[in-house]
Amino acid sequence: MEGIKSLENKKIPDFEDVVAFHGHACPGLAFGFRASLAALAELGERSEDEELVALVENRSCAVDAIQVVTGCTLGKGNLILPDYGKQVYTFLKRPSGQGVRIVVKWVSPQETAAEQETWKRFSDGDRSPEVMRIIKARKGEKMQEILKADQQELFTISHITAALPEMAQIYPSLICSQCGEKVMEPKTCQRGEKILCIPCAEKD
Ligand SMILES: [Zn+2]
Ligand SMILES: [Zn+2]
């Protein structure tokens, strides 16, 4: 497990590690990777526990790069996804709330009329081998452009101080009276004598 070992040595994961986690290489992943590197350059080490919090304003491939590179993950609760459909990545340090807001400003170079026509056919549902070959090539080129671009071309970065979300908490488990499965206390519903989990309460 070479990857795991390198994390223990606090090496910053590289783009290959990110692709291994995500499953494919794509422009969105490249944005997430570059934003993560920019954040770590400004704020220091990746997050082993919850010392760093990421607020990601979209649900794109970029999210996976951020989890691998910065250590801000859904599982640890220090990755928050207010989905505004914006390419904006905010990283805050605990306990100070100081951090950076990274806004993607990069626009890909103007495409040829033929490339624009191909994108239109693709978004209209054309998945012919000819269209797929051109789309794949364009995505690959775009990804390389993002990986190689100067940071100033990609992002506007501002230093901010903001309110931190609450730390992840551990709650006791109760047993749902209906299904008999364990459920964390704040997610239970009281129905008379019964304590129910949310799915059982919705069926009740
Ligand atoms: Zn992707
Ligand atoms: Zn239940």
UniProtKB/TrEMBL annotation:
Q: Is Metal-binding one of the keywords UniProt gives this record?
A: yes
The record, for Gene3D superfamilies, names: 3.30.1330.130
Leader sequence segment = none
Start and end residues of each Zinc finger DksA/TraR C4-type domain: 170-203
InterPro entries, A to Z? FmdE (IPR026328), FmdEsu_dom (IPR003814), tRNA_methyltr_O (IPR053194), Znf_DskA_TraR (IPR000962)
User: What is the name listed in the Swiss-Prot or TrEMBL entry for this protein?
Assistant: TraR/DksA C4-type zinc finger protein
What's a Pfam family in this record?
zf-dskA_traR
Keywords from UniProt, A to Z, are: Metal-binding, Zinc, Zinc-finger
Domain Formylmethanofuran dehydrogenase subunit E, first and last residues per copy? 21-156
Q: Which SUPFAM superfamilies match?
A: FwdE-like (SSF143555)
Note whether Zinc occurs among the keywords.
Answer: yes
Q: Which PANTHER family does UniProt cross-reference here?
A: DEHYDROGENASE, DEHYDROGENASE-RELATED
- Coiled-coil features, chain-numbered ranges: none
**MF term (GO), any:** zinc ion binding
Superkingdom assignment? Bacteria
